Amino acid sequence: MKQNLLLIEDVADLGRSGDIVEVKAGYARNFLLPKKKGVLADKNTLRMREKLVIERAKRAEIDKKEAEELAEKLKKIALEIIVKVDPEGKMYGSVSAAEIVHLLEKEGIVLEKRAVLLKHPIKETGVVEVPLRLPEGVMASVVVKILAEVVGEIKIP
């Protein structure tokens, strides 16, 4: 059974505030309604929708401006990570999106892991440009230098 809800807050992979979405009853009952992320869509809530859409448009404009400023800041940053490699130069493990998010946090930039658009973890040393999707669809990238550590030495590729 499905229910129509008016979203009060943005919900990842579902919709933005002011959207009317159709969701399964259990998802609405167990997640969206208790966390006050949505309300049942009826005649009264449709009036509320107009107000939410206007608020969302204002917030989107501010979010986009902030994301563009962050994208400019990211252009100037080069992240470095030291990884262990065997004598032949093969990496032990890989550099994942979570590690890139952690490196960005050290620089004072907080992003969600899903904002890092890596198809596969990085498995080679060198310099890699990692694409990022910031709020409001703003695209950016950050340079990650992956340095090799061989038995206590740092070898720059």
Describe the fold and architecture.
By secondary structure, the protein is α+β, with helices and mostly antiparallel strands. The chain has helices at 25-32, 43-75, 97-106; strands at residues 2-7, 20-24, 38-40, 78-84, 126-133, 139-150, 153-155. The chain is elongated, with a radius of gyration of 21 Å. The longest helix is centred in the middle third of the chain and has 33 residues, at 43-75. The chain is built from three helices and seven strands. The chain folds into two domains: 2-66, Ribosomal protein L9, N-terminal domain (Ribosomal Protein L9, domain 1, 3-Layer(aba) Sandwich); 77-155, Ribosomal Protein L9, domain 2 (Roll), CATH 3.10.430. The strands form two sheets. Strands 4, 5, 6 and 7 form a four-stranded mixed beta sheet that branches. Strands 2-1-3 form a three-stranded antiparallel beta sheet.
Short description:
This protein has 157 residues and is of the alpha+beta class.
